């Protein structure tokens, strides 16, 4: 399958464009391929640029990474989501398969240095050490693949996705070299308008997710009391994270993911109790759970 073409200036105003951060061949590009294979892609320089592309109607959707199973949450995303004005309409889990990519004709034995983003370099320490390959820090994964292709040095390789190898004409000298074989990144698909009518994912799974941010009132044990409604109403909270806002240590905002739809009676009761103990609460999105989440949930209950 050929990679989605780069959207041109003539069609960026159409509805069939999804924006992501990074160069063509980045893992965010892979997430676009998996989640929206029929859409054209719009690479953007920063996360802010991705959000602005949707707000300004250059793209219909945004693909944003929020967390990685090995390295935790993606910096800055939780600060950007509440102020973005966009709504989460889907989640996408992408297995991070890392390939060693070299110029045509190079062999694994030729490689002396490998370039990539620092996070990816840290995920391949065992492989690099076993083959005496020196890690080099690049701007990002796909950008490193592009640079390796441009430099054309047989001793220099990139650590990136197989898609990046396809796009930049590099040979895959080794594949799936990551230290952690379950390494997965979670992405959020966002749009200008909320979509809350769905109750099934693409594979027919019926578990819904709701994401929201809130600030607790300045009263003793406010967070404890706010969370109590989810426990008493049997609502499973899969994520709760805190982060500072406005540069103040006393101003804390919380990001949460729960299982269920706001119209479910137990979820509605839990959110009503939460509202009593919070000074603000905003729902960022209601969307079907990714099939991988459902499979992992089934494995835990077996």
Multimer state: single chain
What is the count of distinct domains? 3
Structural class: alpha/beta
Counting DSSP E segments of at least 2 residues, the number of strands comes to: 15
The share of residues in extended strands comes to: 25-35%
**Fraction of residues in helices?**
25-40%
Mean pLDDT rating = 89
Question: What is the CATH class designation of the largest domain?
Answer: Alpha Beta
Distance between the termini: 36 Å
Number of helices: 10
Keywords: Amino-acid biosynthesis, Aromatic amino acid biosynthesis, Lyase, Phenylalanine biosynthesis
Site (Essential for prephenate dehydratase activity): 185
GO molecular function, one term: prephenate dehydratase activity
Domain Prephenate dehydratase: 17-192
Explain what the structure shows.
By secondary structure, the protein is α/β, with parallel strands linked by helices. It has helices at residues 27-35, 47-55, 77-84, 118-122, 125-130, 141-151, 162-168, 222-232, 265-276, 291-301, and strands at 17-21, 40-44, 61-68, 72-73, 87-95, 99-102, 113-116, 134-137, 156-160, 171-174, 184-191, 208-216, 237-245, 248-259, 278-288. Mean pLDDT is 89; it is low at 1-5 and 7-12. The longest helix is centred in the C-terminal third of the chain and has 12 residues, at 265-276. The chain contains 10 helices and 15 strands. The protein folds into 3 domains: 17-94, Periplasmic binding protein-like II (D-Maltodextrin-Binding Protein, domain 2), CATH 3.40.190; 99-174, Periplasmic binding protein-like II (D-Maltodextrin-Binding Protein, domain 2, 3-Layer(aba) Sandwich); 196-300, Alpha-Beta Plaits. Helices cover 29% and strands 33% of the residues. α1 links the parallel β1 (17-21) and β2.
């Amino acid at each position: 399958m050929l990679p989605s073409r780069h959207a041109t200036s003539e069609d960026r105003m159409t509805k069939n464009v999804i924006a992501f951060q990074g160069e063509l061949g980045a893992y965010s590009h892979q997430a676009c391929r998996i989640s929206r294979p029929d859409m054209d892609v719009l690479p953007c320089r920063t996360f802010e640029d991705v959000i602005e592309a949707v707000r300004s109607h250059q793209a219909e959707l945004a693909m944003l990474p929020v967390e990685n199973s090995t390295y935790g949450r993606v910096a800055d995303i939780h600060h950007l989501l509440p102020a973005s004005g966009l709504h989460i309409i889907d989640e996408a889990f992408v297995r991070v398969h890392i390939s060693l990519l070299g110029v045509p004709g190079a062999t694994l034995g030729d490689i002396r240095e490998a370039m990539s983003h620092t996070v990816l370099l840290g995920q391949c320490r065992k492989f690099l050490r076993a083959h005496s390959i020196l890690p080099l820090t690049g701007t990002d994964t796909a950008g490193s693949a592009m640079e390796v292709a441009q430099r054309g040095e047989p001793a220099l390789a990139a650590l990136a996705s197989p898609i990046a190898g396809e796009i930049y004409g590099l040979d895959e000298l080794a594949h799936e070299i990551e230290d952690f074989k379950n390494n997965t990144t979670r992405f959020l698909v966002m749009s200008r308008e909320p979509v809350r009518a769905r109750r099934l994912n693409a594979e027919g799974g019926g578990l819904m997710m709701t994401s929201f941010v809130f600030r607790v009132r300045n009263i003793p044990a406010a967070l404890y009391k706010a969370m109590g409604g989810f426990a008493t109403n049997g609502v499973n909270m899969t994520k709760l994270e805190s982060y500072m806002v406005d540069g103040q240590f006393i101003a804390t905002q919380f990001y949460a993911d729960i299982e269920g739809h706001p119209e479910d009676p137990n979820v509605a009761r839990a959110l009503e109790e939460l509202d009593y103990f919070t000074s603000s609460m905003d729902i960022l999105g209601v969307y079907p759970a990714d099939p991988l989440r459902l499979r992992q949930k089934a494995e835990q209950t077996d």
